[in-house]
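Margin note from the TA: students keep mixing up input and output lines. Inputs are the sequences; the output is the structure of the whole complex. Example:
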Amino acid sequence: MIYSVATGFVLWILFPIWYTLSSSFTKPSKIGIHPTPFWPENPTLNNYRIVLGIPVHGKNCVPGIDIKLCETAQSNVSVNKIVETMLHSFYVGALVVIFTLIISTIAAYSLSRYRFIGSNFFLNFTILSRIVPGLVLVAPIFIFLRVLNLLNTPWALIISYTSFTLPLAIIILKNYFDQISIDLEEAAALDGASRMQTLNLIILPVAVPGLIATGVLVFLESWSEFFFALVLTDSYTVPPLLAGFLSMQTFNWTLLSAATVIAIIPPVLLTMIFQKFIVTALASGTGK
Amino acid sequence: MLLAIPALLTVFQSLFVVPADGIGIGEFTKIDNYLFLFKNEIFWATCLRSIWFALIFIVGSTVIGLAAALLLNEKFVGRMVLRGLLVLPWACPWLIVGIIWKWFLDGNIGLFNGVLIRLHLISHYKDFLSDPKWALWMTALAAIWRQSCLVALLLLAGLQTLPRDIWDAASVDGAGIIQRFRHITLPWLRPALTVVTVLNVIYGLMQFDVIFAMTQGGPGSATTLLSFLIYRQFFIFTNFGIGSALAVALAFIALIGGLIAVKTLYRKIEV
């Protein structure tokens, strides 16, 4: 009984992904077979080669059916932009993570340790702003960036993503700092350490798991974000590039599936590796 | 503050006819943008559709997520593998969820049809996404696919803190499995459920990526949600005034939805 339910879940989770994976190994000419096969017939790596910009060898190009395949290898630039775009995504993600972590560590630490005027308001406001979605804010941000002439630069994304990920990061880190015993700090203070020194030398090393989890979550968010990347830049990061595939003249699902598989490898790896940290952080971060 | 200023600006803009270049604010029209919306049938229909989509999404992902969490809380061989799998959909960006499902459900090459045919549930390939009756359900299903995994992970974290002895004590006292679920597990999970539901309300109402990838609001207007309408007003018709009014309306609905979720779930804690 329990195994049949479990199998059901596995199928429910895996089927869509499996189809994408198997399509990415299928030859474009074999894609329309009915009933749709579970397993690609004569699997090929050509889709990946094209998407990654590796030239397809002449003997693989069957004239007639695969002629498009041969041409796209050299000429179609938008298809094999995936590598470059992923580097952009990494760049944006890394900077967003750095900025968010610096700002949110200081903010979360002060929220966790001090009671200043308006600290409660600030905390509640942070939680509330997590609920206000980006969709509602896009027009003013768009206009700001336009006035500042930052549209279609990585900074457009870095600035807007940082402002969106900050609340989440602050909440998670505050909860994390709350759990760290205050004794350590008092000892440090007795030894004459300043607040910033305490934060740097005592708290940060202890808080590494929390920082990792927050960093990974922030990175995932900036990797996945589509709407802002779509309207603020010209396909600078991965999601809008993939969306651009959909409206291409010579649309090709096998190529798109290969690109999709490549695009989800980094987030999947990250979550697999840091799963424990992330789930704990999420559960605590949203638990308030 | 980075978020507060744009939020206020959105409200502000919604009161004006903003010129298409978005610089300056144009003519002050008081609440004309809102009046225009309230008199507009498309607006109301889209609101209802958004709420309907959100409801399907919330119920679907909570039920599936809860079931998955309960299942994973039991001990069986392969449990860790399944738990690892749960992360997989969640790691996919929303847009990619949309892309994956669009082609999975495709009426010509999709595997979904292939499975249904093999099971003899349908006799020939059917394009679910271009059928107005099915499109909304299928887009919601794709969104549920991702969200239910997050729900499961969060609820599972909650379940694992449930002290086993309470459960055992109740079963010694003769409580059946359903009674135990209702009187022990559910109350225990209520804080987690509240959080999850609030998250779901937001994700459900704001869903854009999946719709964009799967149907672009079609067929007809069968999957045009408020979020998609806002996108069109802003960036296709560059109608910032109306777009902002729509955005404010959407934020308002989300706020009410969130409040309803918190109120209903929290009240029951005290009972």
